[in-house]
């Protein structure tokens, strides 16, 4: 294992200019780093840039950043800056001796890898030289201080791409696997013993085989070039290493690694990475960065969690790109980097929440209940499990697509501890909104949580709106019953006839509303999702004003700060819902469809209110 503390140096920041999708980006790094985001956001491009600096990755004209406003030009600057910090410890003095003339004033090692177009060769070449000052976004490089090969040999990176297969590494003579395992590291005494044992085995094999005996006898007659003989097994230890294979024991049935599933071969490539990366640098003073692309490939969810835990426990600085919420959940929020489209191309937002106690609750709830929240377009923070189960079907009814496909995640904060979640999502650049009960106690707790953000009043209106509070001091159960009580009564009669007969059957109209509220509060979690589905099938969600206000807010916040990307823009293009089961709107009434057909923007709550009145008050039965 590579012990990070024994390495004595670590990469703390990367600055990339005009490479692939990155116009300019500063990326802060820790020991473990998990880069996540939408497809085509630019996660792998960060790894590519680092490979340009620490390795010999090829750079071509197509790798230069370009856009409609900034077309490709050979003169365009493209470079990667890396900043390393020396750790306090026994190795610090050794690093200073090795890097003394290229260290910055404050004792950091920083260098620039510049990609220059060579007119003579028609290719890009790279120049590496020292950075003498790195202060925030101010970076001063000195082309006169070139980095020697001796210095660069101290630094390396081991890149495991998404398409990985350890069986290919085993059989590829040029792979890092073969380069390292072919190096003999046993004593001469043991080597001699192995050679003698192999010769004895070879003699026995030839003797037992009629064909090999005949061939050996025929070769023995050709003595012009010395004694010729058959060697079924390699007699030299170094030759044995070159033919090294990995086997799998399936209860006594031994098969080669190439014959097992791709998932197992993928895991094997990752689990051997730490050992191979250390071995490739030898035992001297050296730094190695491990980079893994999509470790979840070919793995079921449980194994994705397992490989996430293994990566988080590796004693080597690492960068992992992933689409897996299970891998992210094991990585820890403090180590996450959100990759998204920005005004300068791809941008990378690292969580800056370091308070362990603050993170603990958020990590636990996300890991256990909603790991997909980290990939959300907008996270809806709610007080409890009731809202978490109730809202997603209504979102589908309104938008015509499931909440997941739209990138909306409803997350129960476990009470009224909104602020911890707000801080985490703000630090990662993830949009959030709050849907809150209007009762006195929850509303008081909500105001305390967002007091320094302007309070629920400021965050409940205008362009800065992020909060929807159920009106009239009502709970979610009260809001539903006050606006569609007949629907709730019919639901209880159909879904739980015993409760209906016991609680509601003989009540007068004025008493039914409160009785329904009491029943829904008693069976909060049990009834939430079935009731939501019943409303979508038999009523019109537009009869719930707070729900409609939330949908309008989701529509608006989902567009907030969006810069582009095919995947982002396509989510709202065409409703996939046909207006049938689980949908309270007719097909032609989906807001997205109305927006596309009329070109006049989505209708406001006042328009939908008029529709409800025209339909008879309690909601559409269509």
Furnish the topology, listing elements before pairings.
Blueprint: H1 4-7, E1 9-19, E2 22-28, E3 32-37, H2 43-54, E4 79-86, H3 92-99, E5 108-118, E6 123-135, E7 138-146, H4 149-152, E8 155-160, H5 166-171, H6 176-181, H7 188-208, H8 210-220, H9 237-242, E9 247-250, E10 253-256, H10 262-271, H11 273-281, E11 287-293, H12 301-312, E12 318-322, H13 325-331, E13 336-342, E14 345-350, H14 356-368, E15 378-382, H15 385-399, H16 403-406, E16 408-412, H17 418-427, E17 431-436, H18 440-449, H19 455-458, E18 467-469, H20 476-483, H21 485-495, H22 497-503, H23 509-522, H24 524-538, H25 545-559, H26 566-569, H27 591-598, H28 605-614
Parallel strand pairs: 3-12, 3-13, 8-11, 11-12, 15-16, 15-17, 17-18
Antiparallel strand pairs: 1-2, 1-4, 4-5, 5-6, 6-7, 9-10, 13-14
Helix pairs in contact: 7-8, 12-13, 15-24, 20-21, 20-23, 21-22, 21-24
